[in-house]
Every structure is written in C-alpha cells, then in structure tokens.
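Quick one - first record:
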Amino acid sequence: MIHQKGIPMKSVDESKLREIFGENNVKTDPSDLYAFGSDSSVHHAMPWAVVRPDNTEQVQKLMVYANEALIPVIPRGGGSGMCGQTVPIYGGIMLDMKHMNRILEINLPDVYCRVEPGVVDDDLNLALKPHGMFYPPTPASSRIATIGGEIANNASGVRSVKYGATRDAVLGMKVVMPNGDLVTLGAHTRVEASGYQLHKLMVGSEGTLGIVVEATLNFVPIPEYRCMGIANFDHLSHAGAAIGAIMSSGATPSMLELVDSVAIKAVNKTMNF
C-alpha cells in the first residue's frame, strides 16, 4: 500500500491501539486524520492513526508496540507550531497529549511546579496567579499552546529577554524513551551540580529523543509594578543603537520590540488609521 509522496504505508494494528487506549481514544476516520495532519503552518500530511493517552503507562505501551513494529510516533500538543513540527510527513501514529493535562503540584516554598505535558500555558498561569506567581516563557499562542509542546520547541515568547526561554525554566522531567522505558531527568532544585543535564538536551528536541510525560518548572513573582515606553526613530540604525544602550545599561526590560516602517504601515492599514 502506498502512502502520501510515494512512501510505503505500514499497517497499524487498530485492535492493539484500542487495547491500549480504549475505544474512544483511537481515531482512524479520514476526517479525524485530516484534522490532525497539520499545525499552524501551511504543511499537511495524513497520519495513519490518532491516539490520546490518559497516563504515562499508555504512552509506554504505545512506544513498545511502535518500536517493535517500526512505526513512527509523532507527539502533538496544541498544534500551534508554525513550522510543521508535528506534521507526519512519513505517516505514523499521532500521539495527542492534550488529555494529560493535570497540574500535579504547585510548591511555593521550593518555587517549582509539576505538570503533565497537555497543560495549556494560560491555564498554568491562571493557577499560579492567586499565589502572586507566573510562568514566564509564554509564547504568543499561550491560549492553546501546551507545556509539552513548548518544551519540545524551546518556546521563548516576548519576555525571553529578561526571563529566558523554556530551557531556562525547566528543572526536570519524566520522559518515555523510544523503547518504552521511563526515565527521570533533572531535579526539583534550581542548582544541579553533578552529572549531565540531559533534561536540557530534551528541551528543543521536537520529539526526536523521547516523549515528555511530566515536567518540573520554576516560576517567578508577578512584578509589583509594570510600565511601557515608546520611542520613535528616524533611522533603523538609531533604534538598534538605543536597544544596545538599554541592554548594556544594567536595566533588564522584560521585552524590547522593534517595529519598522513596513510593519507600522501594515498595522495602520489593518486598523483603518
């Protein structure tokens, strides 16, 4: 049987998938497969099946089966990526992680939280807000982006100038390896002095090294005061020089955004100014 782009399609044992995930968490209808064949990019390719795990054990069982059958597995979060990271160009099984969406722990004294990969970024910040805390590396798609997807892509967001990207916020994680083994990486502390920091290697690996099933993250206090300033420049080089001067002054703004004349005209046109 020939799949898209002339790639031979391996058969998927649907009965095996239903044995692992249950009847309602396995999708093979073409309409479902089509919907999961793209992210927020222009790319599209059909998976062979879509499964939704509820727990780590199900992910492990899937990886054991897929590893033995040599079937690709593509983990997927909110599908908000814009570069085709979750598009199954070689087919395979789409692993939809959104059902694993529990906030497992918020530890205020030790300043960390533990979450499952399907937790939506904004939902985590909503849970942290009553404690006066927030999780900084928030991308523009934070309303739908999941923590697992952000870890896979090392998402940064507009505040990365001050707080860093996702890699800087991850303290540890649990990962299911391609053969189904479960490993614990990192720690619950801000300083981990011994051994290889393999959890940092997993951040940004886009699902190629393993599947994150739990993450330990740090958070920071919500600033008591916030303000915004706008400066106009006649030349792009002057704006660049001003940014350099700000960053070298000792001040650490949470974000610096340079908007050129093309972008300003586009915004004005959209807003009918």
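second record:
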Amino acid sequence: MAGLMKQWTIDALGAQNLKLTERAIPEAGPGDVLVRTTAISLNFRDKLVLENGMGMPIAFPFVPGSDMAGVVEAVGSGVSRFQPGDRVISVFDPTWIDGQKPGTARHPTSYALGGLNPGVASEYVSFPEGWFVHAPESVDDGEASTLPCAGVTAWYALVEKGRPKAGDRVVVQGTGGVSLFGLQIAKAHGAEVIVTSSSRDKLARALELGADHGIDRANEDWVERVLEITADRGADHILELAGGANLGRSLQAVAVQGRISVIGVFEGAEISAPVTPVLLKSPVIQGIGVGHRRALEDLVAAVDRTGLKPVVDARYPFGELSAALAHLDRGAFGKVVIEV
C-alpha cells in the first residue's frame, strides 16, 4: 500500500523525547499481515520502557506500545490465519505460543512488542501472522486493545494457573487494568472478590462492577479486613500488584496452601517477605509474565461467551499520546486507550 503514515518514536530514553514522525506505510511481505491500527491500549510497562528501557537493549528510533487492535488491510504470500477485513489484536510476546515460556535459567527473556520487538504506536503495522489473533466480536476496538497484556495477565494468573472454583476468596489489589480484569474473571468463575484501593470513589465503582467487598487500604489494615471477611481462613488467591515489601503483607493474608500471583512493581522492583509464613502456610508464589498466545485466544472466546466488558477509563486521540501517558501515571480506573 503506497503512502505515508504517522508513528510515535523516541531517539533517546525519556517520555519527553516522544515525537510524532512520518514514514512510508510498510508492505505485507511473505508470511506477514498489514494491519491498519484502530486502537492502542497503554500499560504501566510502556511508561517504564520509555523511562529506562527496563534493562533491554532498546534500538533507536524506538516505537513504543505492545497492545493494539486493528483491521487487516493486506496479507503476504503464505498467510493462512487471516484475510483482509478481519479484526485482530496483537500478541504481547509472539514467541510464546503455548506451554513453557521460551528462555533459559541464564537468559530468561520476553520478546514483547514495544521492547525487543517493534512497538505498535503507529497508524499501520506489518508483522508476521503469528503476532496476531482474531479480536472478540462482542466489544469495540478500544476495548479489544486492552486484552493482549492486562487482560491475558489476569486470565493467565487466575484461570491458567490458579484454576478458580466457586466460593474461592480472591483478593485483587488496586483498580487498574489487570485488577479489574481479575475482578471480572474471578466473578465469572463464581469467586468471592475482595478489592483493595486507597480511593473510596474507585472502591465504589469496583463494587458496582461486581466486587463483593471493598477495603480502603489508606484508612484500614487491609490484611486484618481480609482475615475478618474470611473468618481467619485467608484468601485463596491474591493478585499481588504492589510489589516491594507488600509481598510480606500478602503472605499474612493468604490462606494455608493458597496462591499469590506476583504481577506488579508499583512499590518497588525488589520484593521482600519473611520466611516464616512461607514455611508454615506452604503457599504457591507464582510470578506472572503476562501469558501465551493460546491463553489470549481462550480469553477472546471467554469475552464473547460471557459478555465480559473491558473497563476503559479514558480514550485519547492518536496525537495525544503524552496526555494519555500522564493519565496513566495519575492512576486510571481500568485502561487508558488511544484511538487511531
């Protein structure tokens, strides 16, 4: 397809270096799919990559962003999974199709989009067909764009690894994208969901979304409240989104042989916790590095089957990426989306 497109890039680390550039629309080579981007969803990870590269050897000019929805414009030779007109969403780490995550003990890694692989903050992208899956039919493109990272992270933690059952007590920390997906997914499986937040307004909105209990962690001891709610049994599964020393608090709140999914780093990239509850409670402490392509396909099917509705806090035009990132930094209720 001839013509020019707009694309966000940086030539050096720092969100202040973002600039809207122009380049030729790429072609769909053999095995590739050319997609016209319609929506991009932001993640806290995008902010970290822009600020410090997250330890990755970032190649400049760098295009940020991992999560997008769009429409297939053209396909290259040998493509069998898609055809022009299909609505698609990106795969966060296209090297991880199913099963065990690629990498070794010495070199664990993630070839995520907007990291070691190209980003999606562009009006068009041309990637191998395996880098996409079909979008859900029941949600719009902005909502669909929230699934590849936040959605599949919550799904992978709860369903793929946690295998929730009716009556389980699930604690969701915060009200960001992963948290609200976790709330809805847990409820869909019959769990009793406890949400913690420092915002009373956001807690009220979480209760409207289906949470059974809301804990104001700014004014209450959230561990004690979880123990009260569960009659001292503790939580069967905790989505640990704070990081840092908060892991120790989660260990106090988790049930004997319960599960803690370690996802977030809001309170620090170094986690710490006392060993005694680890030994006495024998919990599963599971690090969650998003999820594989098959899990994303399962989530897409679940969205259409159950009517799960991704929560979008705000939508910004493509030219206002900096404003959208600032909204993300302030703390969103759900997801921040850029419409292209």
